[in-house]
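Exam revision sheet. Question 4 asks you to relate a sequence to its structure. Input first:
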Amino acid sequence: MKNLVNGNIVSNQVDQTIVNAAYKYSTLKQFSHRALALVVLSIGIASILFVRHKISPALRARNHVEQVIKVALVLYSTIAIAVFITIGIVMSVFYESIRFFRIIPVTDFLFGLKWSPQMPIREDQVG
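Answer key, structure tokens:
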């Protein structure tokens, strides 16, 4: 159906049901684009009216801007901490997997027929 709407049809014979569905899809797609444009335009106009209402000689814009920047910096630092924690977890798993594959060959791990979940990996463990 999407191919019919986009004009990518290779056969000459198309079922009428698909043609009707493609027409309905095309009209709904046009309607959704118009609705999206209307919503964006409405939000823009509402934002302009709100800002014009808020602007006055007594407004201390610097304080508001600094507060927004402070919140943004806290948000960005939280995201950075989450990224570093994720990198730490990945590096820890990578390090342990390297230690594991030094003891057990990759071919034995992937294709081996003997499974022993109780095998000791370190000297202080008991199998």
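Marking note for examiners. The first helix runs from residue 2 to 6.
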